[in-house]
């Protein structure tokens, strides 16, 4: 199963989530894709995902996390000993999101909520060092206009051989090169052979 975790103010309708689900459908395995609409409160988002993981039973799970979803995926991978694909992941989301405290609107659903210090405190409780239990495929683009890709490279370098890294020149925070990585993601998840 691929469990996709979308980013800040995003939703299951995001382009990468839709493309990945469509790729699984083409393989006849569309029912192995799950992308919850994550709650804006980090603690509740994590609780949502852990309920889905528990419901999967013994089914193998690969997390795929984009931006803030990559931050969540890292915490979950380390807590549960899972593999995770990280797409332009947020490494230090508190520092990035402090400037956005106040009213927010979800880009896809239109939901309005207030980003508060409580959100940031919950994020701080999820900070973890990768590499003890998780296994990662890190995909970043150097043109990410929101997050410095070098921070992610440095952070996940601590994983040693448990991390594979793809760095694409140019691009953006949305990961413009995403369609080219779908076969590699599916192979990493054990869905299909590489190539």
Question: Would you report the number of β strands?
Answer: 8
Number of helices: 7
Shape: globular
CATH third-level topology: Rossmann fold
Proportion of residues in helical segments: 25-40%
Calculate Rg over CA atoms.
16 Å
Give an overview of the whole structure:
This protein is an alpha/beta fold and 195 residues long. It has one domain (2-188): Alpha/Beta hydrolase fold, catalytic domain (Rossmann fold). Helices cover 37% and strands 19% of the residues. The protein is built from seven helices and eight strands; from the N terminus they run E-H-E-H-E-H-E-H-E-E-H-E-H-E-H. The chain has a six-stranded parallel beta sheet with strand order 2-1-3-4-7-8, with helices on both faces. A two-stranded antiparallel ribbon has the order 5-6. Strand 3 (62-66), helix 3 and strand 4 form a beta-alpha-beta unit. Helix 1 packs across helix 7 (178-188). The longest helix is centred in the first third of the chain and has 14 residues, at 42-55. The mean pLDDT is 94.
Task: Sum up the structure in keywords.
Rossmann fold, alpha/beta, 195 residues, globular, 8 strands, 7 helices, 6-stranded parallel beta sheet, two-stranded antiparallel ribbon
């Amino acid at each position: 199963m691929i469990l996709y975790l979308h980013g800040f103010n995003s939703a299951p309708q995001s382009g990468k989530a839709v493309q990945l689900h469509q790729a699984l459908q083409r393989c006849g395995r569309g029912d192995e894709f799950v992308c919850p609409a994550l709650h804006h409160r980090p603690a509740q988002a994590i609780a949502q995902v852990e309920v889905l993981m528990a419901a999967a039973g013994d089914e193998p799970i690969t997390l795929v996390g984009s931006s803030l979803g990559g931050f969540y995926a890292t915490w979950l991978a380390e807590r549960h000993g899972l593999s995770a694909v990280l797409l332009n992941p947020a490494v230090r989301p508190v520092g990035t999101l402090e400037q956005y405290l106040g009213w927010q609107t979800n880009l896809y659903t239109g939901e309005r909520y207030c980003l508060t210090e409580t959100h940031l405190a919950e994020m701080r409780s999820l900070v973890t060092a990768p590499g003890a239990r998780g296994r990662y495929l890190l995909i970043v683009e150097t043109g990410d206009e929101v997050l410095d890709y070098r921070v992610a490279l440095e952070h996940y370098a601590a994983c040693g051989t448990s991390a594979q890294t793809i760095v694409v020149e140019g691009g953006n925070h949305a990961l413009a090169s995403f369609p080219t990585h779908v076969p590699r993601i599916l192979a990493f998840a054990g869905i299909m052979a590489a190539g």
